[in-house]
Design goal:
alpha+beta, three-stranded antiparallel sheet
Amino acid sequence: MAAAAAAAVGGQQPSQPELPASGLALDKAATAAHLKAALSRPDNRAGAEELQALLERVLSAERPLAAAAGGEDAAAAGGGGGPGAAEEEALEWCKCLLAGGGGYDEFCAAVRAYDPAALCGLVWTANFVAYRCRTCGISPCMSLCAECFHQGDHTGHDFNMFRSQAGGACDCGDSNVMRESGFCKRHQIKSSSNIPCVPKDLLMMSEFVLPRFIFCLIQYLREGYNEPADGPSEKDLNKVLQLLEPQISFLEDLTKMGGAMRSVLTQVLTNQQNYKDLTSGLGENACVKKSHEKYLIALKSSGLTYPEDKLVYGVQEPSAGTSSLAVQGFVGATGTLGQVDSSDEDDQDGSQGLGKRKRVKLSSGTKDQSIMDVLKHKSFLEELLFWTIKYEFPQKMVTFLLNMLPDQEYKVAFTKTFVQHYAFIMKTLKKSHESDTMSNRIVHISVQLFSNEELARQVTEECQLLDIMVTVLLYMMESCLIKSELQDEENSLHVVVNCGEALLKNNTYWPLVSDFINILSHQSVAKRFLEDHGLLVTWMNFVSFFQGMNLNKRELNEHVEFESQTYYAAFAAELEACAQPMWGLLSHCKVRETQEYTRNVVRYCLEALQDWFDAINFVDEPAPNQVTFHLPLHRYYAMFLSKAVKCQELDLDSVLPDQEMLMKLMIHPLQIQASLAEIHSNMWVRNGLQIKGQAMTYVQSHFCNSMIDPDIYLLQVCASRLDPDYFISSVFERFKVVDLLTMASQHQNTVLDAEHERSMLEGALTFLVILLSLRLHLGMSDDEILRAEMVAQLCMNDRTHSSLLDLIPENPNPKSGIIPGSYSFESVLSAVADFKAPVFEPGGSMQQGMYTPKAEVWDQEFDPVMVILRTVYRRDVQSAMDRYTAFLKQSGKFPGNPWPPYKKRTSLHPSYKGLMRLLHCKTLHIVLFTLLYKILMDHQNLSEHVLCMVLYLIELGLENSAEEEPDEEASVGGPERCHDSWFPGSNLVSNMRHFINYVRVRVPETAPEVKRDSPASTSSDNLGSFQNSGTAQVFSLVAERRKKFQEIINRSSSEANQVVRPKTSSKWSAPGSAPQLTTAILEIKESILSLLIKLHHKLSGKQNSYYPPWLDDIEILIQPEIPKYSHGDGITAVERILLKAASQSRMNKRIIEEICRKVTPPVPPKKVTAAEKKTLDKEERRQKARERQQKLLAEFASRQKSFMETAMDVDSPENDIPMEITTAEPQVSEAVYDCVICGQSGPSSEDRPTGLVVLLQASSVLGQCRDNVEPKKLPITEEEQIYPWDTCAAVHDVRLSLLQRYFKDSSCLLAVSIGWEGGVYVQTCGHTLHIDCHKSYMESLRNDQVLQGFSVDKGEFTCPLCRQFANSVLPCYPGSNVENNPWQRPSNKSIQDLIKEVEELQGRPGAFPVSISSETNLSKEMESVMKDIKNTTQKKYRDYSKTPGSPDNDFLFMYSVARTNLELELIHRGGNLCSGGASTAGKRSCLNQLFHVLALHMRLYSIDSEYNPWRKLTQLEEMNPQLGYEEQQPEVPILYHDVTSLLLIQILMMPQPLRKDHFTCIVKVLFTLLYTQALAELSVKCSEEDRSAWKHAGALKKSTCDAEKSYEVLLSFVISELSKGKLYHEEGTQECAMVNPIAWSPESMEKYLQDFCLPFLRITSLLQHHLFGEDLPSCQEEEEFSVLASCLGLLPTFYQTEHPFISASCLDWPVPAFDIITQWCFEIKSFTERHAEQGKALLIQESKWKLPHLLQLPENYNTIFQYYHRKTCSVCTKVPKDPAVCLVCGTFVCLKGLCCKQQSYCECVLHSQNCGAGTGIFLLINASVIIIIRGHRFCLWGSVYLDAHGEEDRDLRRGKPLYICKERYKVLEQQWISHTFDHINKRWGPHYNGL
C-alpha cells in the first residue's frame, strides 16, 4: 500500500523521484504543501484533479476491507502487512493533507483558536457523573458536566449529582435548555462577536479531503455489512467496527477542534451534490458500483424501498420546493399496514399466527406506507445515520454524531435526518438482541434533539414529526396484539397487546415513548397534536390496545400452576405509554382558552370507548370472576373531565354522554374496586401472589394518580349524574353482599362464601365512604392535595425526606409544577411535620433523620379515609391507628381505643353536587337501617368496622343534608303516597325518625324467625290487605336496580327491550341445592334514631346511658362543633350523630327526648341456636386457651429474667468474673461457674474444666497510635499524603531491628514487646460453659444446615446465652477465688528475702498444681486455646527472630499477648486510670484466665538463670571488661530493655497464683530500673551546659542522708557514669536542633520524670487489679502518679503529702544505688564506644503515645468524591470501577478489582490484613458507605455522611450534597477501638476474598 501511494504521487509529479518508504513522511508533507499551493491559485482545477486522484488511490476501499474480511480472499488480494497498516497509512495521509504541509498538531491548535465556544456540548457515555440543577433548567432533561457545574454558581439551588444511565451531553451555554444565570464562567460570554474570521486557506484542504474520507468510511460500512438470513451476528458487526475505530476516532477528534472545523464538517455531511457525485455508483469505478449494490441490498433487506428503484438515478429529482424528507413517497402504493408488515413478522415466533388476522384500521394507508417503508438518502449524513442504525448504534459513531451538535446548521439537518429514519430505528430496535444497550444509545441522541422546543417545533412543522411518532408507535404495538378475552370471549372483536411479549416485557418501546413524552412537553408541539383530529383518532386507537390488557380470571378450583409475572409489564406499559403522554397533554390544558382541546380529546375518547364496548359486546352486566386493572381510555376521559372543570371552567354536562353510556362507563372501574376487596378477602388466593401484587401496584404511589384516582373520580362523576338508588344497589351487587342485607338472622348467599361476607361488606361500605368523602378532583386545590397526601403518609409512619418525596404521587410530568423539592413541598412539610434529628440507639442501629406529624395534625388533620386509599399494605392502616391512639393517650384527649376520627371535608365544586344525592336515597337508608338493626341483634358476620362505616355514612349524610327540610307539618301528608316504601321521603334527616313496624323477609325454613307466631293484629289478614296497610315491607336491591335500569334504557331508546337480558341468567340464580326460602314477618318497631340510642346503651354496657346533652345546655345545638366529640370511640360517634340530628331538626330533637324518656327495656335475650352455640363455645375455648398461653409466657419471661439477673450479675463491681456467685464467708475456697448450656453450676476441675466464651482477634489498633494529638486528615489533593513512620508500630519495629543488628538475637527478643501490629486481643461476654458441653454445641452447629453468618469450621459460634460472637473458649483455672488470696495477710519479710524467693520460684520449672506429664483435660484445653491464640494472627506478626521457629519467638509472643490486652484496656479507659473503679472492661475481663494460660506455657521455657534479667536487676556482678566480645554479639544492656516487658516476663515466670508481696517486690525492683532509664534519657536530651550544671549540683548533695532518693544526685551520677563512654561526644549542632531548648526547672524535670514512668505504672496497676481484684482508685490527672504509686505499694505508707510530691521518693533500691547504676551504665559504655549514635537513639524511648484515631474526614462529601472517583490506582494505574479508601491509613484501593488481585486475594482484603491484621474500614467512594472487613467476613456499616435532612444516600442515588455526621463517625471510631464490630453489627456475610 505504501509503495502504491508513493507510485501514485510519483506518477502525477514527474519532477519528484520515487522515494523509499522511509522517506515517505517527508514526502507527504511536501506533496501536501505543493497541493495546497496549487489549490490556492485562482484557477485551481488542475490542483483539484490532482488531489482527487491522489485521494482516490490513498483512500481506495478495495484493499483494506478485503483484508478486514479476514477470509481466504484476503490472501488472494495480496494486501501487504495486516489490515491495520494500510488504514493507518491512509489516516497519516489525511492528517498531512489537512495540515497542508505543516505539522498536524500545529494545525489543530490553529483551528482551535477560531472556536466560538458558546456551547460546552461535552458528550459523555453511560456511568459518567454529571449534575442536574432544577433551579436553572428549563427542560427537565438538562444536565451539566462536573466542570461546568463547579464553575457556575449554584449555591442554594435544587441540584443533584447523578450517574448517567444512557449517556448525555452538557447543556452549558444553551439558553434553550437552561437559564443563562446558570452558565459557567467559560460559556457565559456570547463570544461569537470577538472571534476573528477564519482565514480561507486554513481549512481549504479540509473541504477537499473530508468528503472523500467520509465516503471511504461509508464504503467500509457498506462492505462490512452482510445480510444473512437471521440478521448479522453481533460478532461480525463488532469486527467491522473495531477495524473502523481509528477512522471514527479521527472524525471525533476533528469535531473537538471547535466551531470552525465543525462548520466544514457540516458542509461536507449535508452537501447533496458531493454525495450524489461520489456514491451514485454510475461512474466507471467498479469498486464504487459494487458498494452501491451492497447499499441497495441492505435497504431492501431492511424492508425499505428505494424510491427510484426502477428509474435511472437522477431523472426524477423532486422539485426544489419539497422538503428533503421522503415522506411523500410514491403515491401509487396503497394497502394497509397489515400486509406490509409481513417482512417484519417473519422473525416473530409462530405464536403470533393469531396476530395476522387482526382487523386494524389506520387512518390512511398511503401516508403510513411512506412513513414506514420509504427511505431515500441524499447526503452523507443521512447514509451515515442509516449505517449507524444498521450497526445498532455503535458508541463511537453516536459520540461523533452528537459531538457535532453545537453547530446549529448541523443540528437542524441531523434532527430532520433522525426523524426521517425514525421508523427504521423502531424496526431495528425490535429485532435487536441487545435492545437495552440500543435503547440507551437512541435516547442518548434523541434527548439532545427533542428537548429543544424551537427545534421540536420546526421539525413538527416541516417533517410531520407527530405523524411519524404516533404511526411508528402504533405500528410497533401492532406486532404483538392478541384477541381480548374480556366479557364475550367468543365474539370479541377487541384486540389488546400481549404483555408476555418481549416488546412489553423488556420495555423495548421506552425510547420511542420517552421521545413522544419529551416532545409533548413543548407547548407548541402539544397544541398541534391536540388540534389535529386525525392524530387524536390514531392516538386513541393506540391507547385502546392497552384497554383491558392482562386480564385476570379468578381460579375457582385448583391453584394456578404457573404464576405469570407479566403484570408488571402491563402496569409499566400503561404508565409509560398511556398515562405519561396524557399528563404531558394535560399540562397544556390549564386555561380557558384551551377548552377546544379538551372537547376534542373527550370526544374522540368517548368514541373510542363506544367502539370498545361494541367490540367486546358489552350490554349491562360485566362477566363474573374477571378483572383487568387497565382502563386507560376511561382514565383519559376522567382526567380531561377533571381538568375541564378545574381549570377551564367548562360546563361538565356539556362534555358528558347520555345516561346509558354513563352506566356502562361506571361498570369496569366499579368492578376493579370490588375485585380489590375480593383480593384482600383472599378470594383470589388460587391465582397466586401475583394478583396481590397487582392490587398493590394499582394503589402504589407511582401509579395511584394515573390509576385508582381517575377511576374513583369517574365513579364519582357517574354517581353524581345517575339515579342514586340505581348506583347504590349496583355497588352492593358488585360487592356480592346483597343477600346479606336482610333483617333475618340467617340468609342464603348464592354468590359468596360465608367466610368472605364480612370483609366484602366492609369493603363495600369503605368504598362508599371513600367515594363520598374523597375530594381530590372535586374541589381541592393543588396545595391542599399535597398537604392531604403528606399527612396521610406521615400518619402511617415517620418518614425520611426522600421516602416522602417518593411516596407523594407527583404529577408524573415534570412540567406540571409540583416538582419534588419545589417550594410548596418544603413549605407544606414544615407546616405539618417536625424533624427528628438522626439518633443512635445503644444497640448500634443507626436512625436516619425523620419527619413526624405535629400534634395539631393528629388533632385536626388525621384523615383515615385518605390513609386507607393510599396504603399498599393493610398493616399501614393499623399502624396509623396505633399512632393516633398513642397520640390521644399521650395528650390526654382520650384514654381508650379510639375510632377513626370523622374529618370535615373541603366543599364540593358545584358541578359535582349531585354526588350527595347518594346519601339521601332510600336504598342507602334501608341498608343503613338494616345494618344497624343487625348489629344491635348481634347477627353473625358483622364487625366493629362495619358499624364504624355505617355511622360514618350517617354522619356524612347529616353534614351534607339538603336545604332546610320543608315545614314538618306539611310532610306528614297522606300515607298512601308511600305505601310501597320503607321511608316517606329521601332526606336522611327526616327518615331518621321514621319508625318501621313490620318487615317481611325471605328466610330459609330453618331460621328461628319462622317458628314465631306472626303478630296478632295481622294473623287474620290475608296478604293482600297486608300490603296496603303499609306495615310490612319487602325490599330487593337487585329488583330495584333492574327497575331503574329498565326505566333509564326505555327513556333513552325504544328498542332497548330486546337488549336487556332476562335476569335469570344461570350465573346468578342459586342452584336448587339451597334450602327453600319462606316468608316471615318480623316485628321491628324501630327508627334509625331509636336504634342509635339502643346502640349507645349496648356499646357502653349500661341501660339508659344516653342523656341528651342539650337538656342541660341548649347552646350546644347552635354550635355543634364541639372538641369534646372530635376524638373518641363508638359511643362518642353515636353521641355526635344524635347531636347533629337534633340540631338539624326540631322534630328529631323531640323524638330523641321521647325515646330517652321511655326507659328502654333490656334487649330481648337471643334464642341461641345449636350452630351459634357451637361457635360461641369455640370462641370461649379459644379465649381460655389464649389466657392460658399468656400466663405461661409471663411465667417463662419472669423465670428468664431472674436467670439473666443472676447470670449477668449486673451491679456488683467487686466481682471480677460475672459468673462467680460468691457468698460472704471468707472460707470459700473455690470459684463456682454456671454452664450456660447445661445449666449446672460447679467449680472448674481438671477432668471437667469450665471455660469462658471468648473472641480472639488480631488487632493493629495499638500500632496506629501517634505521638501528636491532631488526627491525620484524609488526603484530598495530590500533595497531601500520609506516611506511617510516626505510628507506634513503625517506631517499635525500627527499635527491634536496631537491637537485632547489634545484639544477641535471643536477648533482643526479651528486651521488647511485639503485638503493636497484629497483636491478639481477647474479649469475653462473661459467660462460662463446660468445655465438653461446648464441643457438643459446636457439633450441633456444624450439622445445622441453616447458613449462619459465621463459619463453624473456623471454630466460630455465638454465645448460647447472649448470642455474642465468639471463636474460642478460655479454660478457667481450678483454684481459689481472687478474693481470698494469701496476700490478704501481708508478710513482713524484707525486700532482700522476697527477692531471693522470687528468684528461687522462677528457677523451679513447672512447679504447678497440674503436672504436665499427666495429660489432663485441662492441660489439653490450655494447649488448644494457646494454638488458637497463635493462629489468630498471621505468621509475620509473631515471627521476629532471625532463626525461624526458635522458642524465644514463642516466649516473646506469649508475654506480648498479655501486653496487648493490658494496653488495649488502658486505651478503652481513655488512656489513663483517672476514672478508676472496676470499669466495664474490667467487668467482662478475662485477663485473669488468660494469665494462667500464658503462665502455664511460659513456664515450659525456663530461662537460663545466667541470662535471667532478674539477676542483673538485683545483684552486683564483678565487672569484667573483656566479657563476651570475642565471637558472639553481646546481650542487650539492661537500660535498653523495655521495663513493662520485663514486668510481664517476671510475673509470668512465677508459679500461679502469685503472692501479693512477690508482685510488689518485682514492681519495686523494676521501678528502680525505670527511673534510671528516665534519668539517662533526660541526660541525652538536654544540652551540654545543662548536663555539666546538673552534674555539679548533684555531686554536692551526694553525701546527704537520702541521696539515693534524690533525683538531682542520681541524675548527676548517671551523667558522670555515662560520660565515661563516648555517648555524649560528637554531638555537633544537629543534636541541639533536635531537642527544643527549654529551660529545665525543677518542676519541669519532675514532670518529665513522672510522665516517663506513668505508662509503666498504669499497666502495672491494671495488672494488679486483674490478678488480685483490687479496685482502682479514681483521681485527678495531676495526682495520677502519686495515687498509682501508693496503690502499688511503692510509696511508704508513712509518706507525708504536704510538700510537693517527688517521684524519687518511690525508689526502694534492693542494692546500693550507685553500685548498680554503675554496673548498668557500664554495659552501655562498652556499646557506645563503637556505636555512639545508635547507643544514644536506643536510650530514647517514645513512651507518650496519644490515643488512636481514624483519619479526619472533610466536612463535605463532594471533596472526597471529586478527588477519588477519577483517581487512578497506584498498583494497576487504571481508574477503579469501585474505588475505596482505607479510613485507618488513607490507602486508595480497588474494591473487587481483579486488576490488583494477588494470589486470589482482592486488594481490600489484602489491605485489611496488612493494615489492620484482618480488620479493614473502607469508605466506598461511589456509594458513600463504609464497609467493614473482619477476617473472612464483611458487613456494610452504613454511612457517616448524611444530607441536609439527616439521611444516608447509599450509592449516591439521589446525589444531594452530603455532610459529615460527627456523632456517627465517633461511633465508628469507638467500635474500631473497642473491637466491637462483631458484636454490634448484625448483618455479616462471607467475602470469599473477593473485595
